[in-house]
Amino acid sequence: MTFGKRLFDVLFSLYLMAFLAPVIVVVTVQCLRKQGRPLFYGSERMKTPTEPFTLWKFRTMEPDPDDIGVTGGDKSLRITPYGAWLRRRRLDELPQLWNILRGDVSFVGPRPPLRRYVEMYPHLYAEVLRSRPGVTGLASLIYAPHEERVLAECDTAAETEEVYTRICIPRKAELDLLYQRHRTFWMDVKLISWTTAKFFPRRIRPVRKGKFV
């Protein structure tokens, strides 16, 4: 990660923590009121092929100590009503501002993978994780909606795992490596603006334009 990218991450995360403080407080209170504890969900992810960290989110599912792998249709019954509302607006990811401030992830980059997938595809992730993982990115914006639909159709954990490893991982990696080859500061700004667009009324949302979309 360049010094400029890291400086932007620190300053912008501090700004958003202050600006979104009322939203974070309201979501925290509502999570406690509607779902109880635990308030947060911590997932081990990989910063590099050998360096793990804990990625934090507001909890959106009923706890399961045996939970592994990505979320598919087989886990849909565990998603709480308030958790589903948070997921649609990506508000469950607000705690990741802390991960950005710590340097675990950047604002823009490949989504940090679970250890199991890095161990399954070591050569692929050796390339992908040359970029610092991010909260949003090219693959998140372009492919994630399709991935959610495909995985939602899976009825078992085994089917979810098979579809994710066979279809989703290679396609997301292609986009992550495309971002890696063409990344600029202004490209990061565009991706952040497109990510936050869903929080604004449609008439004033940024319009996606450019060679990558």
Properties at a glance:
globular, two-stranded antiparallel sheet, two-stranded parallel sheet, 53% helix, mainly alpha
> Helical amount among residues, as a percent range?
40-55%
User: What separation lies between the terminal Cα atoms?
Assistant: 24 Å
**SSE pattern:** HHEEHHEHHEHHHH
The overall strand count is 4
Q: Oligomeric status of the shown chains?
A: single chain
- The stretches of 5 or more residues where confidence is low (pLDDT under 50) are none
Write down the overall geometry: globular
Structural class: mainly alpha
Gyration radius, in Å: 17 Å
Secondary structure tally, helices: 10
| Neighbour order of strands in the largest sheet | 1-2
Explained architecture:
Helix content is 53%, strand content 11%. It has 213 residues and is mainly α. The two termini are 24 Å apart.
Write a brief caption for the model:
The protein is mainly alpha-helical and 213 residues long.
